[in-house]
């Protein structure tokens, strides 16, 4: 009966095929021992993996021995690893729970890759779904915190996770263990949440189950609806993002005029900017700032947002990368035959040609025509520095690069990523912006160095 | 302090203006008595309304007296009504709770309209939000069951509902009542839910509050996120509906080819068809039917859906109204000068003109050119009946109307709404479909009756 449901659930949700080898994450607790027994009794191909987190001394070691003995009994491959979780957590400055999860899943993913397992199976069940949902609801959440645990999920490290006992409640698994006299150890996972989950398990869930005896039948449908709703929300978020954003150099710009007419703009902006490290509090402040004059700046660990006015007069939010400005120096000792990759930031192509009779300076500032005889090797390419100065083409005096970039009304990120070409310590070209008067093509010029700048884009078109 | 929060909440959510007269729904219980006191102490313009549901005999009557005395004390207008709720519920075949809600809100809406109150205020608070959310979660729900109670809401009867004490928890209201020695009666509303709500209140909510002492601060944000998510889901549902549907006469058609590639089609279809009275179980079956041959029919109280194949060969779901076919007969005794409205179903315009030399029969079947001399008054317009027959233009013999409509591969709804024009008990035109041979324009015709049919659409373009 339970075996039938188990097989039915695997097939219905296409968790894995009958010839697939599945790696089971086995703590030795009730849930994972019942899952393993179900794999065994239904003749699936499987192996067992156990992580010793070294968090409960001899008890942890005894868990490992217990699971290993079971694997020998079943006659299946067994994988064991031991982590000094507490030390690693301290070293990385994260919680023990988070460290345990990271260590566990990255080891499982490695095992799947190296040993060719089709997927990793964990023993999550219906109570886990409800408890997680209630816990998230209690602590504050959005849709993502309510959508439960998926039967099948591909992780970003491309490992595939399956939950083949998600069809059952904890008490159904306990009943199965009792009927088959299955031994198991007390579950040691989720130590930090354990107290909260126990409170929910013993005090909250029984009341809900009393109010709706069909709770375990309605719950999966509720969760499925919320998961579907989340997909539609994501669709609408992606659609409206592409409608609103304007690419601005290497940054993106969200015009206030478009933002402020969007329904639920607070929610949208928070969702859009979350991947860039901004919190809800900040996005609320950004929206508030739009009703004041420009200039306010908001920073996340990786990005910054400025309430800014662009050259076309439009105001809005400018999203720029705070990517550390790379320090590098590229030296050219001869004219290159191939495009030069400059520290992964951009490429330059250089062609040296005879000056045509009808020479005209280029219109596009990404292309520089310089006097080739005037450029002597070595040439240096590096980011500009405070204090750098040069005489721009057509100007009488010298100018600080910082003033030039300010005058050009560039964004902070654009200013930061500006690079110069030097010849004998003199700036010949503020790359992509302006050439130096001394290196211009004159009537005496015989050969022209045509240098072209190709930038890569920092931002994706949509989140 | 509480008064400040109260005023702040009203302003922030723009519930009503300082000159607006607000009608308070007052049961006499803790929540509504505190709300009333807050209105009084902050000098708002208000009136009180109490409903006696006659559900607890003398106790109900005592509640009414208690509230009335309070209104006199405050010196504000008081409105009272008494319903025999149990009898009305039995008569309408609905639950007492539903009857109480219907009676209460329709009376409040009437009062607002007649007496010019700007809005109706109810005393919902934060615990109501959490309890409703948990109750819906327990019983099974979608996003709509989790989005809480809005601070301000316009009802379909155009009454405006406000919840000015939604900023407070039940215990904050109780503390306020204690401090100000406010008397109140045991709340009698929500009788059916009372047991469930009490269980949640005493056993579940305290555990959640222990797990997150900031629960009452995070809850409104969670609810706000879910409400915003719901708006985005609705936007995406409306957008994809217009992308998928094809208008087909008076019905709409959902092509299988477009449906089956939609992400989360099960969820979408259920949401789209809910307003037409179909349940989730049915929509799942409809999707299943698409992988079989056409013909399966699904009915709701007002509509039917057929897995059908259209004339262009496309298969899909055809949504038709089951609106009862109206019975009517329109008699014309002379040529009309104005368009004729036929029982609100469609209009006919009739022009009688000299036959042009270069006469060509119309291509559009919604226009009939008939021999005006052949049409003698009275003319009758009525729905076709089983047994009706005529000789279609160009055919040798007579044909049953039912056979003609079947041959034309019309939908059930289109067949049902087909109407005929009769002259001396003979069918001259199956309106919008085919004219009768005997009434055609011949070489002998001198005047032509040009009759044009204008249908109205039954379905909106999007839900």
Uncertain residue ranges of chain A: 457-463
Number of helices of chain A: 14
Rg over alpha carbons of chain A? 31 Å
User: Would you count the extended β strands of chain A for me?
Assistant: 22
Pairing-aware structural class of the strands and helices of chain A? alpha+beta
Q: Can you tell me the CATH class of the largest domain in chain A?
A: Alpha Beta
Instruction: Please give the alpha-carbon distance between the first and last residues of chain A.
Output: 45 Å
What is the mean predicted local confidence, pLDDT of chain A? Answer: 89
Identify the strand order in the major beta sheet of chain A: 3-2-1-4-6-5
Query: How many domains make up the coordinates of chain A?
Result: 3
Tell me, briefly, the overall form of chain A.
elongated
Q: Bin the strand percentage of chain A.
A: 15-25%
Subcellular location (chains A, B): Cytoplasm
GO molecular function, one term (chains A, B): tRNA(Ile)-lysidine synthase activity
Keywords (chains A, B): ATP-binding, Cytoplasm, Ligase, Nucleotide-binding, tRNA processing
Main location (chains A, B): cytoplasm
Keywords:
homodimer, 463 residues, alpha+beta, Rossmann fold, Phenylalanyl-tRNA Synthetase, Chain B, domain 3, 3 domains, six-stranded mixed sheet, five-stranded antiparallel sheet, 22 strands, elongated, disordered C terminus, tRNA_Ile_lys_synt_N (chains A, B)
């Amino acid at each position: 009966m339970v075996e039938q449901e188990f097989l039915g659930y695997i097939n219905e949700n296409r968790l894995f095929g009958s010839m697939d080898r599945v790696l089971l994450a086995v703590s030795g607790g009730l849930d994972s021992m019942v899952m393993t027994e179900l794999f065994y009794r239904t003749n699936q191909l499987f192996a067992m993996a156990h992580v010793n987190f070294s968090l409960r001394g001899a008890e942890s070691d005894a868990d490992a021995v217990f699971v290993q003995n079971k694997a020998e009994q079943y006659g299946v491959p067994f994988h064991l690893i031991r982590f000094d979780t507490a030390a690693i957590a301290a070293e990385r400055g994260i919680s023990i729970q988070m460290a345990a999860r990271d260590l566990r899943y990255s080891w499982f993913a490695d095992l799947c890759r190296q040993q060719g397992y089709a997927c990793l199976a964990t023993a999550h069940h219906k109570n886990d779904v409800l408890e997680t949902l209630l816990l998230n609801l209690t602590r504050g959440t959005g849709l993502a915190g309510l959508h439960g645990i998926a039967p099948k999920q591909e992780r970003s490290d491309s490992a595939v996770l399956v939950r083949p006992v998600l069809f059952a409640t904890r008490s159904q698994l306990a009943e199965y263990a009792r009927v088959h006299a299955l031994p198991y150890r007390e579950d040691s996972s989720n130590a930090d949440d354990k107290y909260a989950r126990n409170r929910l398990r013993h005090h909250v869930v029984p009341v809900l189950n009393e109010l709706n005896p069909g709770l375990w039948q309605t719950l999966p449908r509720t969760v499925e609806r919320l998961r579907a709703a989340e997909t539609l929300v994501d669709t609408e978020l992606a659609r409206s993002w592409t409608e609103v954003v304007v690419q601005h150099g290497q940054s993106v710009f969200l015009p206030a005029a478009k933002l402020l007419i969007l329904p639920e703009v607070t929610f949208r902006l928070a969702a859009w900017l979350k991947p860039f490290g901004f919190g809800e509090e900040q996005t609320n402040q950004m929206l508030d700032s739009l009703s004041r004059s420009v200039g306010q700046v908001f920073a996340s660990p990786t990005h910054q947002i400025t309430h800014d006015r662009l050259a076309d007069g439009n105001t809005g939010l400018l999203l720029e990368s705070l990517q550390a400005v790379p320090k590098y120096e590229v030296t050219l000792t001869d004219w290159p035959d191939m495009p030069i990759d400059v520290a992964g930031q951009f490429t330059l192509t250089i062609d040296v040609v005879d000056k045509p009779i009808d020479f005209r300076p280029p219109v596009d500032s990404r292309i520089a025509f310089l006097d080739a005889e005037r450029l002597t090797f070595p040439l240096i390419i590096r980011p500009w520095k405070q204090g750098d100065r040069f005489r721009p083409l057509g100007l009488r005096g010298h100018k600080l690069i910082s003033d030039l970039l300010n005058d050009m009304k560039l964004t902070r990120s654009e200013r930061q990523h500006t690079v110069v070409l030097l010849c004998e310590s003199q700036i010949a070209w503020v790359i992509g912006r302006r050439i130096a008067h001394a290196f211009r093509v004159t009537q005496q010029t015989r050969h022209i160095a045509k240098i072209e700048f190709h930038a890569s884009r920092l931002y994706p078109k949509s989140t």
